[in-house]
């Protein structure tokens, strides 16, 4: 079964209330299905930012894309998630990740756990949230029965295995993320190994679980060389001259980019694509093309 396309934008730039309202409304106007807010220091705080987004838009879903789960006590997090879902009439998608940037833990005065410990905390958090949200006595009660749909983001096998077991949406980071925060983007062959691994684990759930990919760059042909130069440190060895083989990059004319996204759905199963704020306007013309509008 081929799931329909969905499109999200992750808003990352802090600013005034007026500026935030303007860009949330613009995202809705451009046709984005989801407004996401990541969870990094020096970026907008996810919960208040999404609450304001909900109050000034009508249609887009609202996603924490994704929470740095080791920062949170699961019981306290449940209250914030359920409260946001309740007050937005059930528009929330809960995105969770294991966390990976050691400098952010250091800045917050929180010990940086091992990768295994971070994944175990993520698993414990998911279990706690599910237990609380399925309790009919729990307050504040989320508007969506059982709580918001769960998105789990990752690239390593332990997180992807957990996502295949528990998530409604699996978000692939598109490359290896080092503790320093540096991401090395993966080529198509590596991406196929990851998505094949997940789809095998999903089994009968495969036709119900969405696969998401965060697009890192949307580049028009005339900007190709400059963009590749900026991305050099993130590119796999030998692929600087063949960026079409990197699924997280979109380079070309509008029709070429639309065809590339269609191919990524057909080959890897990605139906839900997200972009970063600085690519919001550039990516938007692809939305009606891929929806056949």
Over the alpha carbons, how many angstroms does the gyration radius reach? 18 Å
Instruction: Give the N-to-C terminal Cα separation.
Output: 22 Å
Helical coverage, percent range: 40-55%
Give the number of DSSP strands.
13
User: How many strands, which pairing sense, and closed or not: the largest β-sheet?
Assistant: 8 strands, parallel, barrel
Strand arrangement, major sheet: 1-2-3-5-6-7-10-13
Shape: globular
Structural class by helix and strand composition: alpha/beta
Output the helix-strand order: EHEHEEHEHHEHEEEHEEHEHEHH
List segments where confidence is low: pLDDT < 50 over at least 5 consecutive residues: none
What amount of the residues lies in strands? 15-25%
- Total helices: the number is 11
- The chain-level mean pLDDT equals 94
Structure, described:
The protein is α/β, with parallel strands linked by helices. Helix content is 42%, strand content 19%. It contains eleven helices and 13 strands. It has helices at residues 17-30, 46-56, 74-87, 102-108, 115-133, 157-166, 188-202, 224-230, 254-268, 280-283, 286-291; strands at residues 6-10, 34-37, 61-64, 67-68, 92-97, 150-154, 169-172, 175-177, 183-185, 210-215, 217-219, 249-251, 270-276. An eight-stranded parallel β-barrel has the order 1-2-3-5-6-7-10-13, surrounded by five helices. Helix 1 packs across helix 2, helix 5 runs parallel beside helix 6 (157-166) and helix 6 (157-166) runs parallel beside helix 7. The longest helix is centred in the middle third of the chain and has 19 residues, at 115-133. The radius of gyration is 18 Å and the shape is globular. 38% of the residues are buried.
């Amino acid at each position: 079964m081929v799931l329909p396309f969905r499109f999200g934008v992750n808003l990352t730039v802090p600013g005034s209330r007026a500026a935030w309202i303007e860009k949330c409304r613009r995202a809705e106007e451009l046709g984005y299905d989801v407004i996401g807010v990541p969870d990094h220091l020096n970026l907008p705080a996810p919960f208040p930012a999404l609450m304001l987004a909900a109050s000034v838009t009508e249609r887009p879903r609202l996603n924490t894309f994704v929470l740095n789960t080791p920062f949170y006590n699961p019981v306290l997090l449940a209250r914030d998630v359920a409260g946001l879902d309740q007050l937005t009439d059930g528009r929330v998608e809960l995105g969770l990740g294991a966390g990976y940037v050691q400098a952010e833990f250091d800045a917050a005065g929180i010990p940086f756990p091992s990768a295994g410990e971070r994944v175990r905390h993520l698993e414990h958090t998911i279990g706690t949230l599910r237990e609380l949200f399925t309790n009919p006595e729990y307050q504040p009660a989320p508007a969506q029965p059982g709580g918001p749909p769960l998105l789990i983001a990752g690239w390593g096998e332990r997180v992807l295995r957990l996502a295949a077991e528990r998530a409604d949406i699996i978000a692939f980071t598109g490359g290896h993320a080092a503790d320093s925060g540096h991401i090395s983007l993966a080529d198509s062959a590596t991406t196929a190994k990851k998505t094949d691994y997940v789809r095998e684990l999903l089994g009968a759930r495969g036709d119900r679980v969405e696969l998401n990919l965060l697009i890192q760059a949307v580049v028009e042909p005339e900007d190709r060389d400059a963009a590749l130069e900026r991305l050099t440190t993130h590119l796999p060895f030998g692929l600087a001259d063949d960026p079409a083989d990197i699924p997280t990059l979109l380079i070309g004319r509008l029709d070429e980019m639309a065809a590339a996204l269609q191919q990524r759905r057909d080959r890897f199963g990605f139906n839900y694509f997200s972009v970063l704020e600085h690519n919001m306007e550039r990516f938007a013309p692809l939305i009606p093309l891929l929806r056949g509008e």
